[in-house]
Design brief:
It is a single chain. By secondary structure, the protein is an alpha/beta fold. The chain has 3 domains: 181 residues, 3-Layer(bba) Sandwich (FAD/NAD(P)-binding domain), CATH 3.50.50; 116 residues, no CATH class; 102 residues, Protoporphyrinogen oxidase, mitochondrial, domain 2 (Polyamine Oxidase, Chain A, domain 2, Alpha-Beta Complex), CATH 3.90.660. Helices cover 31% and strands 23% of the residues. Strands 7-6-15-16-17-14-18 form a 7-stranded mixed sheet. The chain has a 5-stranded parallel sheet with strand order 9-2-1-13-19. A 3-stranded antiparallel sheet has the order 10-11-12, with no helix packed on it. β11 and β12 form a beta hairpin. α3 runs antiparallel to α6. It is globular, with a radius of gyration of 23 Å.
Length: 433
Amino acid sequence: MIAIVGAGLAGLSTAFHLKRVPYRLFEKEKEAGGLCRSYQLDGFTFDVTGHLLHFRQAEIKALVEGLLAGRLEKHARRSFIYSHRTYTEYPFQVNTYGLPPEVVRECLLGFIATLAKPATASTAAPEDRSFKAWILENLGEGIAKHFMVPFNEKLWQVSLDELTSDWVSWLVPKPDLKDVINGALGIKDKAFGYNPSFLYPAQGGIAVLPQAFLPGVREIVCGSELVEVETGRRRATFQDGQVVEYETLVSTIPVPELVRRCTDLPEAIREAAAGLRCVSVYNVNLGVARERVSDKHWIYFPEPEYPFYRAGFPMNFSPTLGPPGCSSLYVEISHQPTEHIPPAVLLQRIREGMERAGIFRPEDEIVVADVRDIRYAYVLFDKHRARVLPAILAELERRGIHSIGRYGRWEHTSMEDAIGQGKKLAERLMGRT
């Protein structure tokens, strides 16, 4: 039997694509979805922070559009950066028009300087070159100073010298000189980034996506958390008392959590997994008794006077997500996993920051406020990860354990990637049987 741990998108996709093979899917929560979930509160529907669908793989796009036929709407991205008391479009590096002239000049001259450097400046492997070095080498000192460094240090909560650059290729595009110049002059002739448009459900929030997999999933057990794995005996024990003998274990839970539960792994593997780092995020969902507090989809905030790094406006994705005459927001604040900020303090800081940005008015009434602490939000790509992760995953697989998904592979990937990984693994396991 195949035991699948975690009914997020990767686990659901694995189960969905396992045809004629016995399996059982275990989920510690009372419902499937993982972080791809929605919930209702006082007339509002909130996602567990922002979840938008962007596709690069035709096969996965066709699968999702088939599962959600007629239920998705396409949106042209309206994402902005708020800095220097003004809005500029995302991505920053090709949209500096409107910033103070001296800032535009710094960004433009800094980028031009990167083109004059000899090619030998970038010969280091991505896992050996720091993220900060990548920014300076590819985007220049001005763009680094005015957006890339302050924003990313706010997000990652560490110096960018500590992070490697082996994850940036699809997320941070390097533009051509023409594009940077056009962006400085306010000339727009093409879209940039991996997500110039996105799909989002017309109703129900992002939870309709995992729910669409469920009719094709045969055996799912909710409220059943993995507590121990004996990898030698291939036996898994769950908190509700179930003991499962498996041939193959598919895990989608965070790598450190999985390794901690495996009682007979080598000590070197356990120590390596314990050293993997992540950043946590407070996902603060708000309902405001005023419609259209912003016309944007989401906004990035690089400057330190704003405690949040991003805010999104779900009712601009779908007006069905809240009552008429209201607005909804998700606000994201990064923090170290060991740090705790009381909800009342968070809400006060957010309120003050939103008023400084001109999004809230002093008289605005917040009618709903809900704080959720996402323990594993973003994994840190550091040299320790690059050094130990391949060995950890290889040792697990040698013992019949396949660790997949965003936290199972300990990587920075999308919903599409999680679905694709589950599909590929299911096909591989079926071929083996």
